[in-house]
Amino acid sequence: SLSAAFWEYLRHLGLHDFPCGLGSWVGTGGQSCGTCGTVQGCHCLSSLQNKSYRNGHGRPRGVQPGQEEAALDEESPEALLELLRDPHSPWALPPDCSAQDRLLREVAVLAPELIHGSKLCRVLRSLRMVDKGVQEVDEGVLKFQQLEELILSANQISRITSANLPRTLKVLELCCNSVGDLQDLCAQPPPELQHLGLGHNRLCGPSQDKFLTEDFWPNLVSLDLSFNNLTDLLGLVSQLSSLQKLRVLLLQGNPLAFIPTYRGFLVDSLPRLSFLDDIHVGHDERQQFQGLAGQPELSGSEARVVVSVGKMKGVPDPSTLQQLEVGSEAPVVTYTYFVTYEF
């Protein structure tokens, strides 16, 4: 499940081990923030990267006047951060680690109280769990009460239940999974979702087209449906046209993209689009394709693919074989070749 993968991921980050977490190397004095429970002045997780590590008198965090002697054995936050950031440090993360890995390690230094219990879940706004073997988005995800961005690319998710998604979600990325049915996702979808990424999945039309309307996604701005098995261009467009806020659409890699009038029909049918398949839709292009939306017969569900074979190596060329004379008793050898294409 996603919850189990998340806690395992935190365990591997070592957020409770030196130089992170609460220990003899860090002070624990000071008052707590009323919002997140960490030390006063943290401004919560959203601004931890910009917070001041020391107070106005140059003392380490939490050290009051007259307590300097007791704090001599403690490391300052700057020194602990340096151990995380110095590439030669044994505690440094590998160069190819994600920005999320680095942020959580630094949070464990600047506000170690946040990594205890469910406090981290209550303040985390973005969660990226890529290629972690996640198969299920379980109800434990609801503990992320302020989550706005959930990236679950390259996992093994085939169905996702919207009841287990935080209502605060604005970005849901499910690229490179095995999603083939949107019914459970659309039962109670997050009302404020602005981006839905379903590229490289197993969606088939037209059975799934009915779930791509404003009734389910009233605030959707960006939709990625690329590299699925969508075939009904006319039916899909009739549903997408209800998405009043849709500005970015990706459909490349679907069989329907082979239709000769594919791009022109979409551009004219969805006048609010700004980008189609990562290409900007300009005024000139709209003028060029004006009127195609009123000619659906030109966008039928058929496509013609012309394949030309150039040179083939390793096989005899029949045209160069010596022609036998009529009546010759020599055996006749016939060569036959065929080429198979898989779409």
Automatic annotation (TrEMBL):
Domain of life: Eukaryota
Presence of keyword NAD: no
GO cellular component terms given for this protein: cytoplasm
Annotated keywords: Leucine-rich repeat, Repeat
PANTHER family hit by this protein: LEUCINE-RICH REPEAT-CONTAINING PROTEIN 51 (PTHR15454:SF19), NISCHARIN RELATED (PTHR15454)
Protein name: LRC43 protein
Source species of the chain: Smithornis capensis
Higher taxonomy: Eukaryota, Metazoa, Chordata, Craniata, Vertebrata
Gene responsible for this protein: Lrrc43
